[in-house]
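Here is my example:
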Amino acid sequence: MPIVSISLNDEILGELDRLQKSLGFSGRSEAIRAGIRAFVAEERQKADLEGQVRGILLVVHGGEFDHVVSGITHRFEDLVVTHLHSKIDASKCMELFIVDGDAPRITTMASDFRSNRNMDTVRLVAL
């Protein structure tokens, strides 16, 4: 089996250790493999979307990045049926988009948020 090395900051490593213990994984490698499998399965599901799609796109980010969210949102405004913005706490915001449109454009919108390192969480659920 090939070996892949990764670098993690202390915060992520602490979260990994916490999840490893709480979910019952025998070690970090097992927990990382499970995370990668989930990521791959989620991406495959999105890649299989075709035609007209309705969905929910959830984005969590630091409040200082509202302008980034706004820029991405404007590029895909033709897909957005509803957009809710909520302040989670003093430093975090949540965006909830109800989207309807062409599957490749919806997945591109989700990918644009996901690939931006200022976004904490990005989840697309096709309905």
Notes: The first helix runs from residue 10 to 23. The chain has four helices and four strands. The longest strand covers residues 52-62.
